Amino acid sequence: MTLERIVIVGKPGAGKTTLAAELASRLSLHHIELDSINWQANWTQLPDNEMREHVSEAIAGAADWVLDGNYKAVRDIVWARADTLIWLDYPLWVALLRVLWRTLGRIIRRKELWNGNRESLRHVLNLDPNENLIVWTFRMHTRHRNDFPALFLQPEYSHLKVLRFRSPRETEMWLQTIPTAK
C-alpha cells in the first residue's frame, strides 16, 4: 500500500494529531496539523477563504504529507490530493475520556497549543458547542458516523484508500505494520 499523502479524520480525542505525528516520523512525511492553521491568536478562526489558501499552500509545498483534521471548508482540497484516508471511528466514551484528560492536563500545565492559545476552564464550562470541546465531541460523533460513509462513496473520493479503525488497539496493531524510518 502506498502511503504518501495521508489524511486522518475523526472526532476530537480520537488521536488524529498523535497518529499523524507518528506516521510522519515513521514514513519521513511532512506533518500538517489543520488546527494549527485554523486557530489564530485569541482563538480566532481563519475565514474559510484564507484557510483554503493556507492549506493549499501547505499541501502544494510538500510532495508527501500526513495531515490531520476534519475541516469541511478544505475537505475537497485535501481529500482530492490524498491517496489514503484514515478514519479513527472510536466509541464516543473513548473520545470523551481522552478529551477530558487531555483538556484538564493542558489547563493544569498551561500548555500552549497554537499561536499563543491555551485551553481554560471557560472552554470546559461553556455550554456553547462552538466553545466547549466536550459538547463538540458529542455533536461530531453522530455527524461523522452519518456523513463520512456517504462522502466516501462520492465519485470524487473513489481514489482514496479508506482505513477505518474502530478502537485504539486496532489502530495500534495496524501502526505496528508500518516500519520505523531509519
TrEMBL record:
<protein>
    <recommendedName>
        <fullName>ATPase AAA-type core domain-containing protein</fullName>
    </recommendedName>
</protein>
<dbReference type="GO" id="GO:0016887">
    <property type="term" value="F:ATP hydrolysis activity"/>
</dbReference>
<feature type="domain" description="ATPase AAA-type core">
    <location>
        <begin position="7"/>
        <end position="58"/>
    </location>
</feature>
<dbReference type="InterPro" id="IPR052922">
    <property type="entry name" value="Cytidylate_Kinase-2"/>
</dbReference>
<dbReference type="Pfam" id="PF00004">
    <property type="entry name" value="AAA"/>
</dbReference>
<dbReference type="InterPro" id="IPR003959">
    <property type="entry name" value="ATPase_AAA_core"/>
</dbReference>
<dbReference type="InterPro" id="IPR027417">
    <property type="entry name" value="P-loop_NTPase"/>
</dbReference>
<dbReference type="GO" id="GO:0005524">
    <property type="term" value="F:ATP binding"/>
</dbReference>
